[in-house]
Amino acid sequence: MAQMIFVNLPVKDLETTRGFFEKLGYAINPQFSDDRTACVVISDTIFAMLLTEPRFKEFTKKDVADASSTTEVILALSADSREKVDELADAALEAGGFPAGETQDMGFMYGRSFQDPDHHIWEVIWMDPAAVEGEG
Known about the structure:
The chain has four helices and nine strands; from the N terminus they run E-H-E-E-E-H-E-H-E-E-E-E-H. By secondary structure, it is α+β, with helices and mostly antiparallel strands. The strands form two sheets. Strands 5, 6, 7, 8 and 9 form a five-stranded mixed β-sheet that branches. It is 24% helix and 33% strand.
């Protein structure tokens, strides 16, 4: 079985953030969702668990970072092409996300970033397969 990752993110308004990810084309797994949690299916092995802040606090004794003023993590997703990077980043901004940085274009690598409604930073990156294999 392939190893999976479940990224747990605190959210202020579950319905707003859930709707944001649905607008990006991601499904919500109802088996792992309720009125305090939404499981966003990013791929067969990647899931974002959106937890209301009170629910999130049940899993830690530490303070919960306010992502609007503190960066606790930067989440990076791969894309199949430069066009797919632009599609996802543009969709995120249109769906209520916020800009998070400048476009990075190094020729062999292209990336853009955005913030979700709770200000978590997401990067979308394409790398030329030839460069990854050391042929570029």
